Amino acid sequence: FFPQHRLEPRSVGEPTVAMAEDAAVEETWGQIAVNNVESNSLGLWDGQRFYLRSFPVWYRWRVVPTARHNEKPESGEVKGVNFEQSMGRMVLWYNLAEFGEVSEEDVCVEMSSWQLEVQVGSNLTQTKGRITGGRKIDALTGELWSDIRLHLSWWELQQDEVGHGKWLVIHLTKMEHRAWTGPWFTDCFNPHKKMSFPWMDKQTIGRSKEEDEKLVRKAAGPPQALEKDLISGMMPERLCTGLDEEEDAYHAFIIIHLDEEAMEQASGTCPMEEIFSADLNMDRIEVYLRNEGFGVCSGTLKGIIEPQLTAWEFTNVRRMNLPKNSHIKCPAFFNPALRIKLVKAAGYQNIWGGVFAERVTAQFEMPRERMLWTERVQRALVLSPAAPLKNNVKVEKARKMCTRIECSQDTVTQRANIILHLDEALEELAFKFKVDLTTFFSLKVGERLLDVGIIADAEFQMVLGRLGGAVDPDKTTWEIVREKDALGSEKDHLALKISLAKAAGHRDRWQEVFEKLEPWQVNEMMRPALGDEVSKEALAEAADGNAE
Question: In whole angstroms, what is the distance from residue 54 CA to residue 41 CA?
Answer without folding.
Answer: 7
